[in-house]
Amino acid sequence: MTQVSAQKMPIKPRRILIIKLRHHGDMLLTTPVINTLHQQFPDAEIDMLMYLETRDMLVSHPALSKLFTIDRQWKKLGARKHVSHEIKLARQLMHRHYDLVINLADQWRSAIVTRLTGAPVRLGMDFAKRRGKIWRWCHTQLVSTQGHGKLHTVEQNLSILAPLNLAPHANQATMSYSPEDDAAVTALLHDHDVKLPFIVVQPTSRWFFKCWTEEKMAETFRALSAKGFPIVVTAGPDKRELEMVDKILALCPDARTVSLAGKLTLRQLAALIDRAALFIGVDSVPMHMAAALQTPLVALFGPSKLTFWSPWQAIGEVIWAGDFGPLPNPDDIDTHTSERYLDAIPAQAVIDAAERLLP
């Protein structure tokens, strides 16, 4: 198949669609692509197609015009309703008359939507698992993924812009929230009598194999609280995460802690982290948010792939569990295991790193 050159795109595209169908953290790490396109084409309308549950990550991004979403619950509605929703979405996207589509996703659904837009330039990744006539037919140009194994996810995403010859790239990831989110956090901090400077700690992840032990987290709370810093503890609303927070707090009853676990939206959490003197957390979405907000952080990391998923351009320290003991290959991990791979990290390493970063 003859690939259409990106040079056939209008010099200044009027409308651009970016497609990414992944998890919350993945959406945050697409923001350098959004920011680069906005920087290069400030008058263009930039839309995003994403999963509904990840919408909160980008809904306040100032460079985005429209957010189109796919609800993964559609498939539970029966074939007829599911197809009806898909057709409605496709028509909405077709009516936008895009000049440029950036397909960062690897699903067949994303490729078909890319083709249906009819955009003159449709860029996709040349994923090894998708090499074939249909994937090529859906895109006008495929960008090589050779070398991606040595690149951070942000760099992988930005590589899709190579055919557009855009320079420089806006490399920093960003996390946006609204004035209403900030006001809600202000009220919560006032209600709990939390004064600056304070520390935000997110000890949980939806994947418990990425978590540290409750005992070591409680030891860290006691040490930092003794230095005079109030600690605001956050977590998702999942029952297991809330139980983990309760156990940690029960182990350090004298520490100066306030729990907002399960009480914040993602954007309110961003507003909270943005005010913090320090963020401490495991490999999870809040860690990426802290890096994007340029809040000093201590990230407890492992066993995910450090090259791909370390906090991008973070201020602070990443403590890699692999420096303290052997870790399994991330591709071989049973995600439902009860193993806590961060256990190799001693509490003192985290406490020392925090004290180096605190004012």
Strand order of the largest sheet: 3-2-1-4-5-6
- Mean pLDDT, rounded to whole units? 95
Radius of gyration: 22 Å
Taking the sheet with the most strands, its summary is: 6 strands, parallel
Count every beta strand, where a strand is a DSSP E run of 2 or more residues.
Answer: 12
- Could you give the distance between the termini? 59 Å
CATH 4th-level superfamily of the largest domain: Glycogen Phosphorylase B
- By CATH, the architecture of the largest domain is named 3-Layer(aba) Sandwich
Shape descriptor reads globular
CATH level-1 class of the largest domain: Alpha Beta
User: Helix/strand/pairing class, anyone?
Assistant: alpha/beta
Order of secondary-structure elements: EHHEEHEHEHEHHEHEHEHEHEHEH
CATH topology of the largest domain: Rossmann fold
Helix content: 25-40%
